[in-house]
Amino acid sequence: MGKITYRTPGDDVEHEVDFADGDSVMAAAVNNDIPGIEGECGGELNCGTCHVYVTDRWRDAFPEADFDEEGMLDIVDDRTQDSRLGCQLRLGAQHDGLTVTVATGMA
Amino acid sequence: MTLPADIDEKLVDPGYFAGTAFHEDLTRLRHEDPVHWTNPASFGRGFWSLTRYEDCLTLLQDTDNFSNHLGTHLPPHGRDLTPDEERKMGVDVNIGFIDPPYHGEIRRPFNPHFSVPAVAKMHDDCGDIIDDIIDGVAASGTADVVRDIAAPLPARLFLSMMGVPEDDWDLVRAITLKMMHPDDPTWGVPDAVDMNAVTADAFGELQDYLSQHVLSRRGSTAKDMASIIANKDIRGRKLTDREASVMGMVIVGGGLETTRNAAAIGIMELIRRPEQAALLQDDTIAKTAVEEIIRWVTPSKNRIRLALNDVEIGGKQIKKGDWVVGWVVSANRDEEIFGPTADQFDITRDPNPHLGFGDGEHICLGRNVARLELRMLLPRLFDRLPDMRITEEPTWVHSTNTTGIADLPIAFEPRSSLIPA
Questions:
Q1: Is B117 on the interface with A (CB under 8 A)?
Q2: What is the pLDDT at residue B204?
Q3: Which end of chain B is more exposed for a tag (fewer CB within 10 A), N or C?
Q4: What is the pLDDT, as a whole number, of residue B185?
Q5: Global ipTM
Q6: How far apart are CA A57 and CA B192, in angstroms?
Q7: In this complex, which of A42, A67, A72 lies closest to B115 when CB atoms are compared?
Q8: Nearest CA in chain A to B116
């Protein structure tokens, strides 16, 4: 269990929600209706609708993006060095207090 | 309600599915024997028929227990494929037939190209094609929804995306029609003795065509999908010639027929329900309408899997090696999921967790292209031609898998072509 905060740039609102160990950043968002994270494919790494930015000290709290995640990140709009796909970020106790920013530019 | 005595034979009879009456029997199956051992003599083999949503979802998601080795859907006959047929259908490299981890290895690199952000970039091209299609029929006051509207859209968008020369479009479409509907009087070879052979031959023709088309793109830096297939980096290698040819075959085979069928039936249902068609100009409702059409039509009625282990579903013991068919067309009307309105067409339905695109790792690769096409076509068509009326009832496709109509004549007040404001 822990808390994760999603910052939505459109309205600059911070949404703090609970997550269970093993949830992904995408699943915790979808479970709480966070705007801008659709999770259309359910975490199969094939829709590109859970693009988030993970910055600063949190960047190293997750394994690096693998080959398939890199391929999807090449396609999403507004990719930066902080870009990740929420479905690939598995949450545990060490992520309590994490803040991510929801990417914009999705259809 | 009781099940018809000949339900097993019906489930493998293409003509039985030409219409909508079969839904009543599937509802009975869902209620009375949702994991039904189906053993029609004419099919030459027994298989399990799953008709509940939850069981179909398990079948689609549980790749540890269920293999794609038999392909995507129930074949016309239960006989084993010959080695030559397996080659034509590409079963060793076809993403419709292979399992994890190999499936993910060669499919995942292509997922980004069909993702939501990638497909959004097709918006303008799709809109231009739609406007041109409507312009093409507006002045005459009559049209055939299938031939003139629903078929040209995916053909033009998808075959352009694949870089297939326009001169070859009719050839490719004729092959995919036969491949997907071998039994159909209009599109298939209805007099053929062996429909599995008709299907395999069509696969072979399509594979041969795509082989020369895709492999000619080796080394190309063009952005068309054939060039992407030919040159995509798959963890430090490229697809082999055989993998690339079959990938091209699968993508073309999947892109044309299902979208046409969903669009045609969706238009028909909306013409019949003008009060719902009037809501399509709301973009939110256009999106939920697309999901409802996919649920309602379920363009591909079933998915087939091979049991890899002994496994229990719904109290029935499924044995390793059994064929298991998930009738997603029934799952998509399951009252347990869609409630008391499960058998009603409602374009405002939300949420709508239908299985029309499948689920799990094999979920339809091109689903977001289909969504884009439908989401853009329907509002524009009903805006331009709001007085469409059906002048003849449609001819339903004969197929145990494909839900489609072969024609749908309509009439409307003739209008001039679109002049952009």
A1: yes
A2: 97
A3: C
A4: 93
A5: 0.92
A6: 66
A7: A72
A8: A47
- b/e sequence A88-101, b meaning 16+ C-beta within 10 Å: bbebeeebeebbbb
pLDDT at B7 over 90: yes
A49 → chain B, closest CA residue: B116
Q: What is the largest CA-CA distance in chain A?
A: 33
Rounded to 5 degrees, what are φ and ψ at A24? -95, 165
Q: Are the Cβ atoms of B363 and A71 closer than 8 angstroms?
A: no
pLDDT digits (tens, 9 = 90+) for B49-78: 999 999 999 999 999 999 999 999 999 999
Sort out which chain A residues have CB atoms less than 8 A from B115's CB and list them: 46-49, 72, 75-76
Structure confidence by residue, pLDDT tens digits, A58-93: 999 999 999 999 999 999 999 999 999 999 999 999
B120 with A106: Cβ contact below 8 A: yes
Tell me the C-alpha distance between B224 and B163, whole Å: 5
Size of chain B, expressed as the number of residues it contains: 421
Helices and strands (DSSP H and E) totals, chain A: 2, 5
Q: Give this prediction's pTM.
A: 0.95
A11 confidence band (pLDDT: 50, 70, 90): confident
Distance from CA of B62 to the nearest CA of A (A): 13
Q: Is the bond into B76 cis (omega within 30 degrees of 0)?
A: no
Q: Output B212-219 pairs: Cβ under 8 A, ≥24 positions apart.
A: B213/B162, B213/B163, B213/B164, B213/B248, B214/B244, B214/B245, B214/B247, B214/B248, B215/B241, B215/B244, B215/B245, B217/B163
Cis before B100? omega within 30: no
Distance between A72 CA and the closest CA of chain B, angstroms: 5
Per DSSP, the three-state class of A5 is strand
Name the nearest CA neighbour of A7 among A92, A91, A82, A90. Answer: A82
Q: In chain B, what's the furthest Cα-to-Cα distance? A: 64
For residue A53, give both structure tokens.
């930015």
Give residue B257's pLDDT band: very low, low, confident or very high (50, 70, 90). confident
